[in-house]
Every structure is written in structure tokens, then in C-alpha cells.
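Subject: for your reference before the review

Hello V.,

The reviewers asked for a structural picture of the protein, and I figured it would be easier to keep everything in one thread rather than splitting it across files. Below is the amino acid sequence we used in the manuscript, unchanged from the supplementary table.
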Amino acid sequence: MTDKTTQPTDIKAICRFITDSDARIVLLSGISGSGKTHLAKMLEKEKFTRLSVDAFLMAEYGKEFQSFEPERQRMLTAEAESALAERMATEVKKGKRVVIDSCLCKRSKRDFMRRKAQETGHHTLLIYMQASFDESLRRLKARKGEGCDDIPVSEEMLRRFFCGFERPDEDENAILVVSC
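And here is what came back from the structure prediction:
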């Protein structure tokens, strides 16, 4: 992991850093409740195109997605990530800057997005949003299910996310953003 770490509450500084960088494609990675969507929406205000896996799934399946069996959810999420990778490439070819608002919980998923970016001739900037279990849980308990950016996540599901999440490796050059 890179040694570039922001202070816990300095999300505005990381937004400025990203906006001022030459990155055309920003990948946000982190557990539910870590602040990915908050940062993605800030970047959206700075003229980034926000591509959200949750928004894609909500548009396709509505709230019913939450009731699907875990295996079906994983399959549909993988399909959504592929669709977003294609859209990412299309948007970048149009000259737009893109932020991918997704968990990207596995190295293989981040590598897939990087390969798609390389096909467009651009590199990615990986931001790893890290929050403690307690902070993530506190944020998730405040969700009311009022849209794709407010999807409730149970404590049990959050524990599974924490257990299965693959932190970015050092060679991924992720920028760590810690939110306490």
C-alpha cells in the first residue's frame, strides 16, 4: 500500500487531490459504509461521471435484488461490474473522467477494471476507503433503504464483507483514505 494517507476527516483534500490529478479513471474500493459513495458524489460535482454498481443493480432489479440468494447476487453483481467497465471505456473515449463507485472487494475485480482502462489508453487511480467495523456498522444502521445509495446492510452481511475483502496489495499503489 502506498504511504499516501489522508487524515481521517479530510475527504475534501482527497477530492481536491483526485480532481487535480491527471487520472481519467478513479476506482473506489472499500467495505460498505466506508465512504465510497460520499467521495464519488463529491467527484461527480467536479464533473466526473459516477458509475455505481448499486445504482445499476437497483435500476435492473429494484429492491428485490436484496432478497435474492447470495450466489445469484454475486452473479448479477459480476454482470453489473462488466457492464460498468464497458460504460467506463465508452465514457473515457468521449473525453470524460470517470469514478467507479463499487466495493471492488477482490484483487481480480480491480485488475479487471484496470485492464479495461488500459484498453482505452488510460491508467487508473485506486482509492482504498478504509473504515473500522464499528464505524461502518454505525453508518449502515443509519440507512433507511431510500434508494440505491442507501441500501441497508445487516451486521451479519457486513461481517462477511470484512472477512472476504482483499485489501489492495502494495503493487496496486492504492491511496489509503482512513475514515474513523
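For the response letter, the relevant points are probably these. The mean pLDDT is 88. DSSP finds seven helices and six strands in the chain.

Happy to draft the paragraph if you're swamped.

O.
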